C-alpha cells in the first residue's frame, strides 16, 4: 500500500494500484474509499515542499505540547511559544554545522537522485525543456519553470533525477 501512497504522478499511482490489486482486491477497495488526494503524493498540492505521506508530524507535535495542553489557553500558548523559541535556537545551532547551504538530509536525497540520473536518457525538446527516458517511463522537464512530470521536483523542491540529467546536459549547476 505504501507504494501507492509514495507515487508522485497519476500513471505511477495507477500502476501501483494495479500491482496491489493482483495481491489483494479488498486492499484496493479499502484503499480508494478515502480520496487519494488526501494520502497519495501524486495528488498533493505542490505549494508546500513536503513529500511526507504520514501523520507522524501531528503525532509528534501533540506529544511535544502534551504538558502545555492541560493549561489555560494563555498559559498553554505561552508555553508553546517558549518551546518553539528553544527549538528554533537548537535548530539554528545545528544549522551552523552544515557544510553546504542545504541540510544534510536534502544533500543525501540529492546525491541519490544524481546517481539515479545516470540511468536517464536525454531527448532535447527545446531551449529549456527536455524529454527524459527513465526505463519504460518518459518525463518532460521544464528547467525554466523548475517542473518535471514526475512531480518529485515540484513536491520536494529538490531537482529530481530527470531534472538533474537535463541540467547536466544543459551544463547548468544542478545544485543551485
UniProtKB/TrEMBL annotation:
The keyword rRNA-binding does not apply. Residues 139-171 form the SWIM-type domain. GO terms for molecular function: zinc ion binding. Keywords: Metal-binding, Zinc, Zinc-finger. SMART domains: ZnF_PMZ (SM00575). It comes from the Eukaryota. InterPro entries: Znf_PMZ, Znf_SWIM. Signal peptide: none annotated. This is SWIM-type domain-containing protein.
Amino acid at each position: 500500500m505504501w507504494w501507492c501512497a509514495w507515487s508522485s504522478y497519476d500513471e505511477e499511482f495507477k500502476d501501483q494500484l494495479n500491482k496491489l490489486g493482483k495481491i489483494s482486491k479488498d486492499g484496493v477497495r479499502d484503499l480508494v474509499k478515502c480520496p487519494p488526494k488526501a494520502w497519495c503524493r501524486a495528488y498533493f498540492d505542490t505549494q508546500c515542499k513536503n513529500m511526507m505521506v504520514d501523520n507522524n508530524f501531528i503525532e509528534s507535535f501533540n506529544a511535544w505540547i502534551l504538558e502545555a495542553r492541560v493549561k489555560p489557553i494563555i498559559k498553554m500558548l505561552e508555553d508553546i511559544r517558549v518551546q518553539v523559541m528553544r527549538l528554533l535556537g537548537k535548530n539554528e545551532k545545528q544549522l551552523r554545522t552544515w557544510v553546504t547551504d542545504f541540510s544534510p538530509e536534502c544533500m543525501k536525497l540529492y546525491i541519490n537522485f544524481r546517481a539515479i540520473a545516470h540511468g536517464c536518457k536525454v531527448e532535447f525538446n527545446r531551449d529549456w525543456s527536455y524529454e527524459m527516458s527513465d526505463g519504460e517511463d518518459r518525463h518532460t522537464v521544464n528547467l525554466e519553470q523548475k517542473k518535471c512530470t514526475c512531480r518529485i521536483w515540484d513536491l520536494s523542491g529538490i531537482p529530481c533525477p530527470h531534472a538533474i540529467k537535463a541540467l547536466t546536459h544543459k551544463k547548468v549547476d544542478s545544485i543551485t
